[in-house]
Amino acid sequence: MKHIKDVNLKGKRVLLRVDFNVPTDENGNITDDTRIRKSVPTMQKLINDGAKTIIMSHLGRPKGEFDAKYSLKNVAKRISEILGKEVLFTQSLLGEEVTNMVNNMKEGDIMLLENIRFYKGETDGDMAFAKELAKLGDAYVNNAFGTVHRNHASVALLAELFPNDHYFGFLMEREVENLSYLLGNPERPFTAIIGGSKISGKIDVLENLIPKVDNMIIGGGMRYTFTKALGGKIGNSIHEDDKLDVALDLVDKMKKNNVNLYLPIDCMVIKEFRNDAESMLVPGDQIPDGWEAVDCGPKSIELFREVILKSKTILWNGPMGVFEMPNFAKGTFGVAEAVAEATKNGAFSVAGGGDSISALQQLDMMDKMSFVSTGGGAMLEFLSGIELPGLKHMK
Ligand code: ADP
Ligand code: MG
Prior knowledge:
This protein is an alpha/beta fold. It has 16 helices and 17 strands. Strands 3-4-2-1-5-6 form a six-stranded parallel beta sheet, with helices on both faces. The protein has a six-stranded parallel beta sheet with strand order 10-8-7-15-16-17, sandwiched between helices. Strands 12-11-14 form a three-stranded antiparallel beta sheet. Helix 7 links the parallel strand 5 and strand 6. Helix 6 crosses helix 7. The longest helix is centred in the last third of the chain and has 15 residues. The N and C termini lie close together (5 Å). Bound molecules: adenosine-5'-diphosphate and magnesium ion (MG).
């Protein structure tokens, strides 16, 4: 793995792929610039080196052509505010205007190209398009962990076109290092806490983790697919009937690998899906007809806490309940607090997933984890152990 910290790119035209796919309101104003801030160390390093930095990013899902709604114009402005420095911005990606602008760049200059997904070649993973992009630079830096699982031109092909001049940015390196640690030989006991609404999308991760972990805590909506498969009563709780076999197979694999499986032993159930609905506490596998489980109960939280506090390595992805409703956030918040406490006591913890991060933000606990992964889908794919397109040629 080659890292920008080990080189000086003075005078080089550096193509920097980032993930500045920031959330915006209906007027295109940026509502959260975390993704931009995460790449400041990388941009600053290139500026300090005296490189000519050419940034590529996507925003949203335009259909391969210009769409004002997805312009990166406001992103350019925000980068400029954050860095306290002018950021050149191009209306297009290719063509004479861009080439001229690049030729006129001075050392330390920084430029943002317009949304790379305005070109179909990007999402098609088109080599001809990648080669056109490559003409603009002398080196390639990938800091776009959030898109590393995409087979897109600027993510998957450019490293190959700069065989001796491709590098990881700081964010990318930290993501890959921390997630690789989990898949390597981390300190034990290793506990994975997996939640969220559905089992589909997380099956490969569970499969890959089973041989590596000591404890598996499965909460959130996905546990009801397991509970139904195991013969419990789930009432109206969310579940996937076409994944019952998969759930049983996973349980079987956990047994064979001596993994302790923990499912919530009690849970909060409601009849109407709203925060102030009438609720009651029932055993986790005995949900009455007409009722739906939306959170785990105090006994489960206590049990999970004990397991978490005994762990030396912890991975957490997915809320333990419908935490968007404050009355049913206790399970999710309880787990977050236990992971934070274990981390304070010296455990190594990784949390990730859009909704899990949002729970951590609500608790103001982002910095209480050892590491928070920024790439939701990318993190899950990484943890499922497959070789990701964006890492294939980054050796
Ligand atoms: P992440 O984004 O952290 O990976 P997911 O997207 O997999 O998490 O799942 C988050 C969603 O799961 C939340 O919107 C939450 O409301 C939902 N969820 C959790 N528990 C339940 C449940 N018991 N019933 C229905 N939805 C649930
Ligand atoms: Mg989510």
